[in-house]
Amino acid sequence: MKRPAACRAGAVLAAACLIALCGCQSTTPSPPAPGDDEQRRPVPAYETIRDAYNARVGRLERLQCPVSITATVRDANGEPETSTADGFLVVERPNRVALRIDKAGQSVAYLGANDDWVWTFDLQADPRTAWVTPRADAELGAGGPGVGAGAGGAGGALPLDPRVLVELLGVMPLPEDAEALASPVEWGRDGRTLRVVRVIGAQRLVMELSPRTLAPVEASVANADGTVVGRATYARDRDVAVRGDRISRPRIAEAIVVELPTWGATVRLRLVDPQNPAERLRAQAFDLEALLESYDIKALRSDPPRAPETAPVTKPEANPETKPETKSEAKPVVKPEPKPDANPRPAQSAPRPAEPNAARIGGVP
């Protein structure tokens, strides 16, 4: 039986949301806007841009809100399919991100990252399956060979370095020193935006900012070879309420359109009442062990799911009633026994985190 488009595209929906949620502005004074001859006018000093932007995102250290999603993806025959879903986003900078995707009252996917792990849950698979990757491996893998085919980064479900995800959420401040940028700030889009380019790991983040408000207009992420793995455009800024702080008024783009060329997907997002909940942030959203137990995950995998256009001929999850025996076949969750690392790290590398297990039960957002 054919799985609904929303079920097949659960991980894509989660991916799109996370790479797209970007853009805030406030009443902080902004750099001067270009005039009629923008390209010939000097670019505002980086310190001016940095201070205005960082004042604007200063109270976005935490963010959570419901998300409304409309996604168009390609089916096995290359035909477009459109589906709607709801989600819930939780962010705590610098490393913690979680997105739950719901369809018809049922959770269909859950994507997240914390300081140690990056993961994607397919809650429509039989058995329910989680792809889990040590964060250090995801950061090393993103931007490397095969990433453009969806084979690296973010637990295998995203063609992105997980560090880039939080950057694209628009909650991270700009670096103190302009030398940390990939190139000097310049006019972009015929002088209508300020272009800020950063290198995050093996990928390049390009932000096009409004010169009047510093609100993001567009953003994109490209691999080292120039392959664009994600684009986003933003509209309809709105206030973000900050619990316990009536003075700060950060703003965020409410309407976001995301393109994922590698996945052949276009996703339209609407943020619903985004807030900084301060100490009431749903921190359990980042507790991997608790989530594995709460969502009754039956299989753990470390091999990455692939983008639709580059999927192998044998697709273990394309038809839940047919499970060919392959090296990537899901295996039952068991408490891992100590074993040699299949890909040993150099001696100077940071130690790997303890393997996840279902030892504890916790809440979910």
Features:
single chain, two-stranded parallel sheet, globular, alpha+beta
Description of the structure:
- The protein contains six helices and 17 strands.
- The protein is of the alpha+beta class and 365 residues long.
- The protein has a 15-stranded mixed sheet with strand order 7-8-9-10-11-13-14-1-2-3-4-5-6-16-17. A two-stranded parallel sheet has the order 12-15.
- It is 13% helix and 32% strand.
- The C terminus is likely disordered.
- It is globular, with a radius of gyration of 20 Å.
Residue share in β-strands: 25-35%
Number of strands: 17
Straight-line N-to-C gap: 31 Å
Question: What's the main sheet like?
Answer: 15 strands, mixed
Structural class of the helices, strands and pairings? Answer: alpha+beta
Radius of gyration: 20 Å
**Could you list the spans in which at least 5 consecutive residues all have pLDDT below 50?**
22-32, 143-158, 307-351, 358-365
Q: Give, in spatial order, the strands making up the sheet with the most strands.
A: 7-8-9-10-11-13-14-1-2-3-4-5-6-16-17
Instruction: Give the helix proportion (percent range).
Output: 10-25%
Shape: globular
Helical segment tally?
6
Order of helices and strands: HHHEEEEEEHHEEEEEEEEEHEE
Summarize the structure.
The protein contains six helices and 17 strands. It has helices at 5-8, 10-20, 46-57, 135-141, 162-168, 288-294; strands spanning 62-74, 80-92, 96-103, 106-113, 117-122, 129-134, 186-188, 193-200, 203-209, 216-222, 228-239, 241-242, 251-260, 265-271, 275-276, 299-301, 331-332. The chain has a 15-stranded mixed sheet with strand order 7-8-9-10-11-13-14-1-2-3-4-5-6-16-17. Strands 12-15 form a two-stranded parallel ribbon.
